[in-house]
Structure formats: structure tokens, C-alpha cells
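SAMPLE LOG
Freezer: B-3
Tube label: C17
Construct: single chain, 256 aa
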Amino acid sequence: MKNKNIIKSIMFVLLALLIFSCKENKPRGDEFHWSPDGTKLVMINLESRELLLVEVENNKIQNIELIDSYKDHKKRILSHGWAPDGNYILYSKVVEKHLDTFIYSIAEKSSICIGQLSGDIKEKSYEIRSNPVWLQNENLVIFPEKLKNNEMRLVMLTPEGLKKKISHSLKTREMQIQLSPGEDWIAYSIDKQINSPANDLWRIKKDGSGKQKLYSGKTISEFNWSPDGKYIALIESETTQKDTLTKLVLLDIKKA
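STRUCTURE (predicted):
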């Protein structure tokens, strides 16, 4: 009994150190995710460079498991969150000069690679130019799949890696995506011209129909749907020789 208490105390201290480590390294919000039922959490320890699964029961830490690790410089792994049923975790990891994305099965305790994300992989840093998302009501991933150079497409994936194409290949280096509140529509931004500071914003249905351009402008740094799905707010920026100009744009979807 005494040994069990010692082990639990050690695990509690370990988790405290992990959380403290994340705070010290100013996490961007993708290092810590609770499972839907609140019994587990997945976290990235930037100090030990590990992706960890922590099990919680009766307000106590019961177990800590290693999902994956990275040996190079910091910020080489990203957690994209849980499947709605809490049985799978989506994460990305720099492998050589590529940003590979994986689905980890809690039951199988194993990962499968589902494709590559677009990004600028450098020696000591990387820039993500795309983001996969889980549907909230189904165990499906909307994935901006990197094809060959400067080409991407939208696909829908099951946790087993089964793939369904949503869009044809698009000439772009980046693709940020946001699901509408009802998850019927996918809004996505792409390069207006390769290597130019300009973006187009489109929407498309999950089945690949209804493709429509919503906006064309300068660099779109962020965008999101209103709760009722009637509007999209976006932040557009333009860099000049003297300054960076930023403006907030509100799109009425019906009038777009």
C-alpha cells in the first residue's frame, strides 16, 4: 500500500513538472487536450520532447503512457485533439523534412500515418500552413492533404485511414480550414498565386459539391464562422515598406 502511494505521488509530481514545463515554454494551445469524457488528457512535454497520454480516475492520476517522441529541436510535434468518441488522437510530427500526420488508437496503442501537411520545415523551426480537424459528431477527419510541390487537396479520412476525396488538387502551398457550425460546409483559404502574399477564401460541402469563392484579398491570417453559420469573420493583413496594415472583414455568406 505504501509503495502504491509513493508511485502515485511520483506520478503527480511528474505531471506537475510537465505542466510547469509547458507554461515556461509558452504553449500555443495545442499542447494540452482533455478527452471528451474527461478521463484522459494528451499533452506535449516540450522539455522531454514527448507526446504523452495521461489517465485520470477519481481525481487522481492513474497512468502516464508515451505515445510518441521527437529527438530534434523543440516544437517538432503537434496535437490536433481527440475523436468525438475519445478513442483516437490526431497529431503531426516532423519526420526528416516532412510534416507527417498520424492517428493514434487508444485501444491498439499504435499509430498510422494518414498523410502529410504543408509546412516550411527548417533546421531549427517550422511553419505550419494547414490544419486537419475532427468532425464533432463523427469519427472523421477533414484533412488538407499535401500532394506534390505546391499542390494540395481536401480529403475526408476514417481513423483506419480510409480516404474519400472532397476536392480536386489545387495549386497552393497552404490550406487553412474551418468547419461551419452544422459541419455541412468547409471554409478554406488557399494561395491566390504561389509565393505571393494574397489568399482566396472558398467554401465547399463535405460531399464535394457547392464549391464557391467567398473572398479574394491580401494575406488572410485567420477566419472563422459565426455561431449561426451566416457570416465568416476574417483578419486580412498587408505588409508595406513602413508598416503592416490589418483589417477585420465580415462576410455575409448569402451575399458572397
